[in-house]
Amino acid sequence: MLAIYIQDAVEGSRPEEIMESTVDANEWKLEVERVTPSLKVHIRTDNKDWRTHVDQMHTHRDGINTALSETKVSYGGIIVTQHIERYQLSEDFELWGC
C-alpha cells in the first residue's frame, strides 16, 4: 500500500496524518507501464566537455560538405548556362555584323 503524508504548511515538514491509498499495486504498475513510453527524458550535456564540441564539429562539417557538394553542382550548371548564353549572344552579333 502507498502511504501519503499530508503536511501542514504552517508547522513545516512534520506529517500530521497518514492517508492510505485505495489503488491496487498491480493496477498502479500497469498504469506506469502504459504511460512510460510517452514520458520524455532530457539529459543535459555539459557544454564544457570537449568531446561534445568535437562531435558537434563533425556533425556540422558533414552538413557543410553535403550542402557544398550540392551547391557546386547547381553553381556549375549556372556557369555553363551563362557561357552558353554568352556564346549565343556572340553568334547573334556575328550574324548581324556587329
Q: How would you characterize the overall build of this protein?
A:
By secondary structure, this protein is mainly α. The chain folds into 2 domains: 3-38, no CATH class; 46-98. 58% of the residues lie in helices and 11% in strands. It has 2 helices and 2 strands, in the order E-E-H-H. The chain has helices at 25-35, 50-95; strands at residues 3-7, 15-20. It has a two-stranded antiparallel sheet. A hairpin with a 7-residue loop joins strand 1 and strand 2. The longest helix is centred in the last third of the chain and has 46 residues, at 50-95. The protein is elongated, with a radius of gyration of 35 Å.
Low-confidence segments, ≥5 residues, pLDDT <50?
A: 1-10
Structural class: mainly alpha
Shape field: elongated
- Any idea what the radius of gyration is? 35 Å
Number of E strands: 2
Helical coverage, percent range: 55-70%
Distance between the termini: 100 Å
| Proportion of residues in β-strands | 5-15%
Element pattern in H and E: EEHH
Task: Kindly give the count of domains.
Answer: 2
Q: What's the story with the biggest beta sheet?
A: 2 strands, antiparallel
| Main sheet strand line-up | 1-2
Mean pLDDT, to the nearest integer, reads 75
Task: Count up the helices.
Answer: 2
